[in-house]
Amino acid sequence: MKAFNPDRRRLLQAVGASATLAGAALLPAPGFAAAARPRRLGRVVVVGAGFGGATAAKYLRKWSGGAIEVVLIERNREFVSCPTSNEVLSGNREYESIVHSYDGLRKHWGIKVVHASVTAIDAERRRVRTDSAGEFAYDRLIVSPGIDFNFGAIAGYDDKAQESILHAWKAGPQTLALRKQLVDLADGGTYLLSIPKAPYRCPPGPYERASQIAHYFKTQKPRSKIIVLDANDQIISKGKLFSAVWQSDYKDIIEYRPGWNVTEVDAANRTVTSEIGDRERGDVLNLVPPQAAGRIARDAGLVNANDRWCAIDWITLESTAASHIHVLGDATLSAPLMPKSGHMANQHGKAAAAAIVEILSGRTPQPTLMANTCYSLVDDRRAIHVDSVHRYDPEKKAPIVVAGSGGVSSAPSVEEGLFTRAWARNIWSDVLN
Amino acid sequence: MKTFFALAGLLGCAGALAAEPPPAAPFPYFVANCFNCHGTEGNTKSAIPAIAGRERAYLEATLKAFKDGSKQATIMHQLAKGYTDEEIAVLADYFSRQR
Ligand SMILES: Cc1cc2nc3c(=O)[nH]c(=O)nc-3n(C[C@H](O)[C@H](O)[C@H](O)COP(=O)(O)OP(=O)(O)OC[C@H]3O[C@@H](n4cnc5c(N)ncnc54)[C@H](O)[C@@H]3O)c2cc1C
Q1: A12 touches chain B (CB under 8 A)
Q2: C or N terminus of chain A, fewer CB within 10 Å?
Q3: What ipTM was reported for this prediction?
C-alpha cells in the first residue's frame, strides 16, 4: 500500500484543486497519461434550484469530476432563502442578505442554469418541457419543486383574499409585503398567525416567526399583540424551549391557542373561523395553508402518498412511481422524524447526487448517513436548535434516527445565535458556490 | 486508505494508477454531512470553526470526546453520537487532507 502514497497524494491534490476549477476536467498529475479527458457519464436535468435541487446539481458536477452534464431549470432569477427570512419580518435582517445569485453554479461548476418553468415531464421518452426554453432530454431527472399550498382548505382564501392575506411561507415578494404590513400596523394592533396541521415545511418556522415578531413588537410597538392559532395540539418543535422564551420574554404579547384549525376566513372583516365554529379577529392576518408537493410533481404523477407527497426509495431517492426520476426535499413523503427543512433538502441533494454518480458509473449505490439541524432565532441575538442523525435501516427501508444522537439546546444562547448566522452563510455557500 | 481508493475510483482513472488497480471502494459521501455547517470540504471563516486541514489525530480525539460527552459543546456532542468510531476515523482522515 505504502508504495502508492506519492501518486495518491497527487491524486488527492488534483481532487482538491478541482473544486476551484469551474467544472473543468480533472487534470492528471504527471504520469496519468490515460486520464486527460473525463468520461461522459450522461446528462441529469434538475427541476427546481432551491435547497435540494441546487445542492444536487453542484454535487453531481463535483463528485463526477465534471463527467455528468447538468441542466438546472428554475423559474426564479434569484435564490431567496426561507431560512432567516423570519428575521426580515422583525427588521433584524436586511432582505438583500437572503437573496443570492445562481452565477456561482454556472461559473464554478459549469452547470447550465436555465430560467424557465417546467410544464411537463415525459417519463417514457425521458424529456422535460418548459414554458419558454424548449425541451431537455435526460438520462436521470431530479425533481425538487418544494411545496405548493392548498388554499382550498381555508374557505374564502381565494385569489382576491390572497392579495391582502399573506402566507409568506415562500421567501420573496411576500416576505417584503408582510414586513410592510407589520410596519404599517398601528401600535396596539393585532397580528394573527395560523399554523396548519403537520407535516408542513419547517416545523419550528412558525414558532420562530412568532418569536421574531414578538421581539419587534416588544421593542417598537409595545401595545401590540400576537395571536397564534395552531392546528396542532401543541408546539410541535422545540416546544419546551419556545414556551419558556414566550413565558419569560413575550408573556404579554403572544397568546398561543393549540388545537385551533382555521377552516374559513372573512377577508373583509379580517376574521377567521375554526372547524368547531370559534372565531378570532386580527389586523394583520398571516395564514399558512396546508401544503403538498410542488405542482409539477403532481402533474408528472409522482404524488403517490396521501394524495400530497412523493414516496421515494431512501437509498437512491428515486420515485416509487416512476423510474429514472428522483425526488428531493419538501416534496417527499418524509422518513420518520425527518423534517421538511432546507438542511435536510441539502442532505437529500447530496444523497441523490451520490447515488446517481454511482449508478451512471456502473456501480451499485450504497445508503448514506444523513443529518438534520434546524436553528431558530428567538430574538435579535439568541438562538436554539434541534438536530438528529439518520442511518438507513435495511429492514424498515428508511433512514431512522440513530439512538442517542441529536437533541435540542439546553437554553437559548447568544453563542448559538452566532452559529445560526454562520450556518446560514455556510449552507448558502454549500448550495450555491 | 479507504479514502484513497474511493477518490481513485471517483476520478475514473484508477487503471492509470498502477498495473493492478485497487478494488473500488465507495467514496465516503457522508463526509458531506459536515459541509453545510463547516463549509464545503470543511472550509469556512465563521463562528463555526473550519475543520479542513486540521491535524487528523486532533479531529479524531475531538470528535470522540464530543461523542462520549467529555468535551462540552452546543451541538457537536449530539451530532457525534450519530457516527461509529470507524466513521469518525474516516471523517478525521478526510478533513485532515483538505486545505
Ligand atoms: C419561514 C421559513 C423559515 C425556514 N427556516 C428554515 C431554517 O432555519 N432551516 C432550515 O433548514 N429550513 C428552513 N425552512 C425550510 C426550507 O426553506 C425548506 O425546507 C427548503 O427550502 C426545501 O427545499 P426544496 O428544494 O424542497 O424546495 P425549495 O427550496 O422551495 O426549492 C424549490 C424550487 O423549485 C422551483 N420550482 C418549483 N416548480 C418549478 C417548475 N415547475 N419549474 C421550474 N422551477 C420550479 C421553485 O421556484 C423553487 O426555487 C424555512 C422555511 C420557511 C417558510
Answers
A1: yes
A2: N
A3: 0.90
